[in-house]
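Hi Y.,

Following your request, here is the sequence exactly as I used it, all 158 residues.
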Amino acid sequence: MSLILKLWDVDMSEMIERYRKIIEESGQKFTKQKQLILETILEVNRHISANEIFNLVKNKNIGLATVYRALNSFTELGILKRIKIDNTSYYELKIYSGKVLHVHFICKYCKNILDINDKNLILEYIKLNNLVENNFDVEVQDADIMLVGVCSSCSNKK
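Below is the corresponding structure, written out as tokens. Let me know if you'd prefer a different format.
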């Protein structure tokens, strides 16, 4: 069974159960706070910062330090991917997200992060990974491509 599933093919409780197993198999406890943080990330289904998550869960008596600890844990376990832009880290689901390979684009003005999922681009992405593996005798396990520029909304404001 592939680890990559589309979010809309699986209900949230099934997703949470899969994440719970990963967390518990690592020897960590799957706390109610971790569950609420994961549910929040699943619900927003976009790149999100720790402060944004905190603002969404603070009314459930979850502190900012707890959010940061959970995000670090999820990132170490490969559940989340951290994307650092300027001095802010944003998080997105890495496994079970349906976003196997994609390129990120960030607008340097509004800081909006877009996922670029294009079949031809992904094929070139795979070719690049294969080229690096073959030419340098390495195994590529993860890759980040971040394009920086101006989005159409910001370019239309000029």
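Residues 1-9 have pLDDT under 50 and may be disordered.

Thanks again,
Q.
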